[in-house]
Inverse folding.
């Protein structure tokens, strides 16, 4: 298939692009390479996909060829309606995997405009591109953040999600509603994936795994919010990638999933882990204890997440199987190698 992967220089987008390249699909990766975090990490990911840094820095080029014959890259902003429309018109994608977004719960409190531009305007441009050019399937990133103040555990996609506690969460809920509308009105398939706390090699520097590892290695204290009384459904990147790629390939194991055009799934590890246990796994791998600053709860944060992934198991035989310790070990091995620690 010919597939557009947006956010291809990002954490999940990079891994998904690499997997799809290995499977032999024709891939166009798109990213605006913004400075929300160090662009050097994004360029390093692209280099693994065979894209030269100097070429990837350029705007207004049709596309950049990779050392892999089935991969090209374009530097483009989703919020640019004209450029996105032209890209869809010229390329005629079979499937679109929209993983580009302004990420981060806490940053949405500081810079709300970025979330509207990327997550709302950008997503509308993607939907319009799919509608106008007869894309068969749009797979897009949502987030566990949409569950907000929900108390029922584990979270299920049938739960009400009308009480988000951050603009980031609200923007992701909006994406789900927009996708539903387009599937209903224009008859193309959309599948939303609510990601649960993804971690692993090549991860984002603003996430706990990265922040904790860096601070401990530099003998600095780590900030532990809600005084450690947090639980997360930590999901290793390879398990996420496998699920996303199966859905892109439309490899159903159950006829239930083939009857409707609009779909929504949790994609997580199917268990909740205490934050202090997660930190303990990092300490074991590093062989040193963390100095902990016990902090109050942060605005926009939630106490516990846990994904019910039974529908994904039923429809795609999705089986997350990476233990926390194995995932933490793999991340720290990558971190030490990449940063020459």
């Amino acid at each position: 298939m010919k597939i557009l992967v947006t956010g291809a220089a990002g954490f999940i987008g990079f891994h998904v692009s690499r997997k799809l390249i290995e499977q032999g699909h024709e891939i166009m990766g798109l990213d605006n390479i913004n400075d929300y975090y160090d662009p050097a990490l994004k360029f390093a990911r692209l280099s693994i996909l065979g894209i030269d840094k100097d070429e990837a820095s350029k705007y207004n080029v049709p596309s950049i060829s990779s050392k892999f014959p089935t991969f090209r890259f374009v530097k483009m902003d989703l919020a640019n309606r004209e450029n996105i429309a032209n890209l869809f018109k010229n390329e005629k994608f079979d499937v679109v995997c929209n993983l580009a977004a302004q990420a981060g719960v806490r940053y949405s409190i500081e810079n709300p405009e970025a979330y509207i531009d990327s997550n709302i305007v950008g997503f509308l441009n993607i939907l319009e591109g799919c509608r106008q050019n007869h894309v068969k399937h749009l797979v897009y990133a949502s987030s566990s953040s949409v569950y907000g103040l929900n108390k029922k555990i584990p979270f299920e996609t049938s739960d009400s999600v009308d009480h988000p506690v951050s603009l980031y969460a609200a923007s992701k809920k909006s994406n789900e509603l927009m996708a539903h509308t387009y599937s209903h009105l224009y008859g193309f398939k959309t599948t939303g994936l609510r990601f649960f706390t993804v971690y692993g090699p090549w991860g984002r520097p603003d996430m706990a795994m990265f922040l904790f590892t860096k601070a401990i290695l530099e003998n600095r204290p780590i900030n532990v919010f809600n005084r450690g009384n947090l639980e997360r459904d930590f999901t290793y990147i390879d398990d996420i990638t496998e699920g996303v790629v199966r859905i892109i390939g439309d490899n159903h194991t159950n006829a239930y999933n083939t009857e409707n055009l609009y779909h929504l799934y949790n994609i997580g590890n199917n268990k909740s882990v205490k934050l202090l246990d997660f930190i303990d796994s990092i300490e074991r791998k590093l062989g040193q204890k963390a100095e902990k600053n016990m902090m109050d709860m942060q605005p926009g944060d939630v106490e516990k997440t846990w994904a019910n992934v039974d529908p994904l198991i039923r429809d795609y035989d999705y089986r997350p199987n990476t233990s926390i310790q194995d995932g933490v070990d793999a991340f720290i091995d990558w971190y030490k190698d990449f940063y020459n620690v």
